[in-house]
């Protein structure tokens, strides 16, 4: 998804950006109500995360303005206040949901997923392909040669990471850091085990070996035509 984040606090901005990028969303930032409104008017985003306390205005007004102009992009309001009537106010101005700061990663993710499910998402957004492999990042489904193949969360994230870096050697360290977000001992067999699961699942429906091992360096994904 393409997500517009209208937020003036650099710390919160960075946090949201990290969370979203980790889930393969593209993030666009606006620091104030004016820029945020301008960007929202382009009507090119799949979601807007909107802070209420902006330096040049109130997030509620931003939301109201864009709704008045016919922009229907789902809006998740971020609020520092614990106001009880905030939910009512959000609904009144046409926002889809709200989240109170401070929030944790899983809560933000859950809210965004819920909004996305409710809105009519564009199906071609968030598709990545590699030869016979097709991944839908929104529904998190994976197909090999037209057959739906079930992947665990870790397998899915790992394969997305590898395909996005196709034709490049990806080291175990990079995978550990970017897919699992931890620095574990890469001498362990952990990642190799996941790679073997993926290979097995792919090979059940394809003749091709998409994930090649590069000795002492890591792995490389080749998709075929490029
Ligand atoms: Ca603020």
Précis, in short:
With 226 residues, the chain is an alpha/beta fold.
What amount of the residues lies in strands?
Answer: 15-25%
User: Helix and strand string, N-terminal first?
Assistant: EHEHEEEHEHEHEEEEHEHHEE
Nearest-integer average pLDDT: 87
CATH architecture of the largest domain, please?
Answer: 3-Layer(aba) Sandwich
CATH C-level category of the largest domain: Alpha Beta
**β-strand number:** 14
Which hetero ligands occur in this complex?
Answer: calcium ion
What's the number of structural domains? 2
Unreliable parts: none
Please count the helical segments.
8
Report the biggest beta sheet as strand number plus sense, adding barrel if it closes.
5 strands, parallel
Whole-number radius of gyration?
A: 20 Å
Distance between the termini: 25 Å
Q: Class by helix and strand content?
A: alpha/beta
- The CATH topology of the largest domain turns out to be Rossmann fold
Question: For the largest beta sheet, what order do the strands appear in spatially?
Answer: 2-1-3-6-7
Fraction in helix: 25-40%
Provide structural commentary.
This protein is α/β, with parallel strands linked by helices. The chain has 2 domains: 119 residues, Rossmann fold (3-Layer(aba) Sandwich); 95 residues, Arc Repressor Mutant, subunit A, CATH 1.10.10.10. The strands form 4 sheets. A 5-stranded parallel β-sheet has the order 2-1-3-6-7, with helices on both faces. Strands 8-9-10-11 form a 4-stranded antiparallel β-sheet, covered by helices on one side. The chain has a 3-stranded antiparallel β-sheet with strand order 12-14-13. β8 and β9 form a beta hairpin. It is elongated. The relative contact order is 0.10. The mean pLDDT is 87. Bound molecules: calcium ion (CA). The site of calcium ion has 5 residues, from β4. Calcium ion (CA) binds next to β4.
């Amino acid at each position: 998804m393409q997500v517009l984040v209208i937020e003036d606090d650099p710390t919160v901005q960075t946090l949201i950006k990290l969370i979203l990028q980790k889930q393969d969303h593209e993030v666009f930032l606006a620091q104030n109500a004016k820029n945020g409104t301008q960007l929202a008017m382009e009507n090119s985003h799949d979601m807007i995360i909107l802070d209420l306390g902006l330096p040049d205005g109130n997030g509620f007004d931003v939301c109201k303005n864009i709704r008045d102009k016919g922009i229907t992009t789902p809006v998740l309001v971020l609020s520092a206040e614990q106001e009880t009537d905030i939910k009512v106010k959000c609904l009144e101005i046409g926002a889809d949901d709200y989240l109170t700061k401070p929030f944790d990663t899983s809560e933000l993710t859950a809210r965004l997923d819920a909004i996305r499910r409710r809105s009519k998402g564009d199906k071609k957004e968030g598709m990545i392909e590699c030869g016979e492999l097709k991944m839908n990042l929104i529904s998190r489904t994976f197909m090999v040669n037209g057959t739906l193949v079930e992947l665990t969360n870790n397998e899915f994230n790992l394969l997305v990471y590898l395909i996005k870096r196709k034709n490049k050697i990806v080291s175990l360290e990079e995978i550990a850091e970017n897919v699992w977000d931890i620095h574990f001992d890469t001498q362990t067999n952990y990642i190799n085990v996941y790679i073997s699961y993926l290979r097995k699942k792919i090979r059940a429906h394809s003749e091709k070996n998409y994930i090649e091992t590069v000795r002492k360096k890591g792995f490389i994904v080749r998709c075929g035509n490029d």
